[in-house]
Amino acid sequence: MTDVKHSDIVRVLTTSAPASSIADAEEIARRYYGLSAQATLLTGERDQNFLITTDDARYVLKATNPAEDRAVTNFQTEVLLHIYQVDPELPVPRIHLGLEGEAEVLVDTGDVQPRLVRLVSFLPGVPLASVSERSATLRRNMGHGLARLGLALRGFFHPSAGHELLWDLKHASRLRDLLVHLEDDQRRALATRCIDRFEEHVLPVLPRLRGQVIHNDYNPSNVMVDEDDHEQITGILDFGDMVYAPLINDLGVAAAYHLADSDTPLATAAELIGAYHEVLPLEEGEVDLLFDLIATRLTMTVVITGWRAARYPENRDYILRHNAMSWTGLERLSRVSREQGRDILRQACNMG
């Protein structure tokens, strides 16, 4: 197997984000979009993002990472345009065209290669990650929202939809190369067992499952909720991890961030899963893999973020924002058998 540390699959994760200044962002907004605006730098993992504020509107200017294939960037752009046509009420960013009608703008910055930028709508609300109290109604709304997104993406395809991404659950086996970065012996053993179980129970079955383009990163940092009513979702952000994959992987990713702080960690995740099933019915074979998919996503989070935080200590806080929660969830899940987990999630979907 190719060493993941030297593979093209991680090149975009090991290339620094573009280094544009606030003045650069304001000039791009003016020259290419006709906006007289103030720019504010936002956090980001791979790209560089700016909040663009005019007298009557707010936008996000996204400067794409130079290591990202432009065809992959176009994949993300075309998805947003497609969703707006299929389900315009879904709260996802809307692409704003440049002065010449372009969805993507190549900006000449004097560098060897022009920089690709996009301007999207700014979605209101606060990140779910900042909300400490999360109700069953919120989890149900999240399940409904993800299912609607899945339906909107059904049938959509793009030549770059099959691109390789380390955060794709299909590639969980490649995490073995990064396990050496886990210094704690017990935690490294736990992560290893999860990868073993993925390879034994999940990997052989994945090719037989329903596949389509999925969001692949429906986590609390990428979901906005109403500032005054935290049960209402106002935005679904960050389509940068989209891939063509088994549909059920999207739900496994999402559910991993909603485990209960108790001896029955799947109780709260089951609420989100049951709500998803109401809108987009799952197949029994898909539900039976959810327990392992949730554990695999948590394993990916602790392994990849631990490795990246060591490489980029200046961005450590942002990279590790889900790390502690993921370790806690993984340790709790380790005390639940696969059979118990399967039965709980089958009951959530009213499957005997």
What would you note in describing this structure?
By secondary structure, the chain is an alpha+beta fold. The protein has two domains: 4-121, Phosphorylase Kinase, domain 1, CATH 3.30.200; 126-348, Aminoglycoside phosphotransferase (APH), C-terminal lobe (Aminoglycoside 3'-phosphotransferase, Chain: A, domain 2). It contains eleven helices and eleven strands. Strands 1, 2, 3, 4, 5 and 6 form a six-stranded antiparallel sheet that branches. Helix 6 packs across helix 11. The model has no long low-confidence stretch (mean pLDDT 91).
Brief synopsis:
This protein is an alpha+beta fold and 352 residues long.
Which keywords apply here?
40% helix; single chain; Aminoglycoside 3'-phosphotransferase, Chain: A, domain 2; alpha+beta; 11 strands; 3-stranded antiparallel sheet; Phosphorylase Kinase, domain 1; 352 residues; globular
The CATH H-level superfamily of the largest domain is Aminoglycoside phosphotransferase (APH), C-terminal lobe
The poorly predicted ranges are none
Strand segment tally? 11
Q: So what's the CATH class of the largest domain? A: Alpha Beta
Radius of gyration of CA atoms, rounded to a whole number: 20 Å
**CATH fold-level topology of the largest domain:** Aminoglycoside 3'-phosphotransferase, Chain: A, domain 2
Beta strand %: 5-15%
> Which structural class should the secondary elements be placed in?
alpha+beta
Question: Count of helices?
Answer: 11
Helix proportion range? 25-40%
**How would a textbook summarize the main sheet?**
6 strands, antiparallel
Shape annotation: globular
CATH architectural name of the largest domain: Alpha-Beta Complex
In whole angstroms, how far apart are the ends?
40 Å
Total domain units: 2
Question: Average pLDDT value?
Answer: 91
The topology string of helices and strands comes to HEEEHEEEEHHEEEEHHHHHHH
